[in-house]
Design brief:
heterodimer, A: about 180 residues, mainly alpha, about 5% strand, B: about 160 residues, 5 helices, flat
């Protein structure tokens, strides 16, 4: 119980005046957990076809990873840059607050933090994750087609059922530069 | 010539500065609802069916995720405030000398710690089935996409 109180005392002094910093750290943890839950959700959803799952699963994985990365680069970057700029301008007298300077700066920083989150998580992340997931889906579907032996096309000989494939036919196929293993 | 911020704007900024994670979640959820399904529907790198299914998932995630997130956070903040009172488990000595703002931030901190744990659980017991159910409903009723059997059934 004393150990818990010690931790809480430390956290109190760490975060007592800095709500945006506190919110951000918890936000990043939440994003990662939500992504894991969503990947499991897609996997167990029996009403989704395999083709769509091959897009949705990498999309969700990328969503989690990019969101967390974006948060630390864009959201945190924009928040800290705004805080630094406004505090600097206030010190040099280039910006004057009529009252409650600390609270007003906190508000500007919060606006920057929210704007950063919206741009990073709701605009940039979906664009990047969609491109990545589409690539993964195409690769996965391409590999599946390559692996369907019954659909193989032989040079000069059209299609050939795998059960009747001769060694020479196999060698011809194996030497085909289009073969991917 | 310095930029002068009036007292009225300072008051508004101060109020914004005290936004908690509930307000943040609402702001993120509503913009997610606005942007992500549109971005998914305009993803020309995949076929139309995948685009629609992806958009319905983003839409459902924005609705279910925001509602669950806000509900869980509100509950945890109330619990955090309750548990931070004198004589309760999360009351600490430093609160004796704390200003009202510092006390308020501390109760938010406790609420956030509780909600962090609760949200992990909620992701699995509320969001996951909720998003699946809502997106399946949109796919079937709105997009008229016939539900597919699972991969195992398809493969056999």
């Amino acid at each position: 119980m004393n150990a818990l109180k010690d931790i809480l005392e430390k956290l109190f002094h760490e975060y007592k005046g800095d709500t945006p910093k506190l919110l951000g750290n918890f936000g990043a943890i939440g994003l990662a957990c939500a992504s894991i839950a969503n990947i499991i959700g897609i996997r167990v959803n029996e009403k989704l076809g395999e083709k769509e799952k091959k897009f949705l699963i990498p999309q969700e994985a990328a969503n989690g990873a990019i969101n967390v990365g974006m948060f630390f680069v864009i959201t945190r970057g924009l928040t800290e840059l705004t805080r630094f700029t406004v505090e600097h301008l206030e010190k040099t007298g280039e910006i004057e607050f009529a009252k409650n300077t600390k609270g007003a700066i906190g508000g500007i920083v919060m606006v920057a933090s929210l704007a950063g989150s919206i741009i990073a998580n709701n605009i940039l992340t979906p664009i990047i994750r969609n491109k990545y997931a589409a690539g993964r889906q195409k690769r996965a579907l391409g590999l599946i087609q390559d692996c369907k032996i019954s659909d193989m096309t032989y040079p000069n000989s059209g299609q050939m059922p795998v059960k009747t494939m001769s060694m020479s036919a196999f060698l011809t196929y194996a030497k085909n530069p289009g073969l991917k293993i | 010539m310095p930029i002068k911020i009036s007292g009225n704007i300072c008051d508004k900024l101060t109020r914004i500065g005290k936004f908690n994670t509930v307000a943040q979640r609402v702001a993120l959820g509503s913009t997610m609802l606005l942007f992500q399904p549109l971005i998914d529907l305009n993803n020309k790198n995949v076929d139309e069916k995948t685009r629609k299914i992806s958009a319905s998932r983003s839409f459902s995630r924005a609705i279910v995720g925001t509602l669950a997130g806000v509900g869980v956070r509100l509950g945890c903040f109330a619990l955090g405030a309750l548990l931070s009172k004198k004589g309760r488990p999360f009351y600490i000595e430093a609160l004796k000398k704390a200003t009202p703002d510092e006390y308020n931030n501390y109760t938010k901190l406790i609420g956030n710690i509780l909600s962090c744990g609760a949200l992990v659980v909620a992701n699995f017991i509320i969001d996951m089935p909720g998003i699946n159910a809502m997106s399946n409903f949109i796919n079937e009723k709105f997009w008229k996409i016939t539900p597919e059997t699972s991969a195992k059934k398809e493969g056999k």
